[in-house]
Design a protein that fits this description.
six-stranded antiparallel sheet, Yope Regulator, Chain: A, 27% helix, globular, alpha+beta
């Protein structure tokens, strides 16, 4: 990657969730999460984008930029728009994390 990545571990319902963020995102809370469900056939990557409002145009712009290869419809968690992708193998999880981080970084840079 072309920048430093901060990785933190959290636990959701007792299961590990690894949060990845670019160092320059620290003030905005954007991140990409790899949730390790413990189920051998399901791995989830979630992308969280802080939005300035829930205005329809803002949501549309975020969805156009970030709703790529997602397995479910996006949803709001407070001020964050969440995007979820599910995978049945760890084989390409690093590549998928990289793609989501790049998408989120491009979206963050465009709106500033």
């Amino acid at each position: 990657m072309d920048t430093d990545i901060k990785i933190t571990i959290h636990h959701w319902d007792g299961l590990p969730a690894l949060r990845f963020s670019y160092e320059n995102w620290i003030d905005n809370g954007n991140d990409v999460v790899l949730f390790l469900s413990g189920n051998n056939n399901e791995h989830t990557i979630l992308c969280y984008a802080l939005l300035p409002s829930k205005d329809e145009d803002v949501l549309k712009n975020a969805d156009n930029a970030l709703l790529i290869d997602c397995s479910d419809a996006p949803w709001m968690e407070g001020k964050y728009r969440a995007y979820q992708s599910k995978f049945d193998s760890y084989d390409n999880v690093v590549d998928e994390l990289y793609k989501k981080l790049k998408l989120l970084d491009n979206f963050c840079c465009k709106k500033n």
